[in-house]
Amino acid sequence: MHFAPLRQRNFALLWWAGLISIAGDWTLRIALPIYVLQLTGSALATSGAVIAALAPTLLVGLVAGVYVDRWDRRTVLLVVSVLQGVTLLPLLAVDSAAGLWIVYAVLFVQSALSQFFIPAENALLPSLVGADQLPAANSLNSLNNNIGRLAGPALGGLLAASLGLTGVVVVDAVSFLLAAALVAGIRGRFAVARDAAAPSLGVRRELAEGLRTAAASPMLRTLLTIGAALSIGEGIMGGVFPVFVTGPLHGGARELGWTMSAQAVGGILGGFVGGRIASRIAPGPLLGWSLALFGLIDLAIFNYPRWAGMLWPGLVLFVVVGVPAVLGGVAWMTLLQQATLDAYRGRIFSVVMVLEALAGLAGASLAGTLTDRLGVMNLLTVQGAMPILCAVGFALVSGRLGDRPNPAVVSPEREPVAEAS
Fold it and tell me: Deepest in the core among 97, 300, 345, 363, taking most CB within 10 A?
């Protein structure tokens, strides 16, 4: 059951396209900040690259979801992949700090295009597999992401050292074009069926329609709250994790790399076993238990240095925590897809992206202001408790909903439309 979705041609093409694209994207994500720092010697310039990549999520993220629900989602993936490959090429002209604006412009465009790609991919997936295989498909997508996360940075560092930015750009551009070729092989049309006689509501009203749908569904509200809470925790983690490794764990750059690799290995392990477990446990209970276990392991990771300053227990725990992290992510994604009608999935996933970006910024800000006051281990202990609180809250909401279905609520302005075949 775990690998059964890969025997379906359309899903297999999407999976391989995603793997190639993600690995290429991580290659550039690692190499480009290094190159900017080498050109400018400025940490501020490197921060500018991060801002250029983040801004489109906040500026165009919600609107992108409207068009994902209007257009054929396979076509969106195909066109965006080609555009991402082509719009990387101006980076080949950057050979001095004077070309830094090109770097920022390319990062902005790449991020803006991804605001269309990610919702389209997540909205398309339930149309490619049967409902019984949806958890396994989401688990395989998680495996896909973690393999790319593990291979991409290593490849990026190697290419940056041997071929410079040119080699990285060429590899990443080729990866996007290969992904586009694979997506082109997906058979079928995947546009939401619409009544030709019904008038268009316009972008603003369609966006409002999607937001009302999210707000009116108890399950969607709960899942979005969990996603935001976990993103705040991720923002805290990203802000203080190097401090944790170099402080309580007495490590350095090498040890930081080991811990990041351990997390990726844990994610891959979770991806391999996730589909098997997810096919046997309903998404609701799986989400609750995974969140609780994830939080408990996090609390162990962030507190064991109070009694032992050795690194190896942390590395082991970082691998182990990858399993509940992936299982929780698979259950959360499956529930979100099941609770949303196909006509609204693009907008709902865009809401997820924007909400998580804002929550991540809030978490990073909290890390910057509270670390000195609370101490790094105390702050990370608060972060580790968040998944446990989410598990309790989800259990309470699930208990009230019982076995009632939670379809997306339809706007009174327009009747629901049939799902795309």
Answer: 345
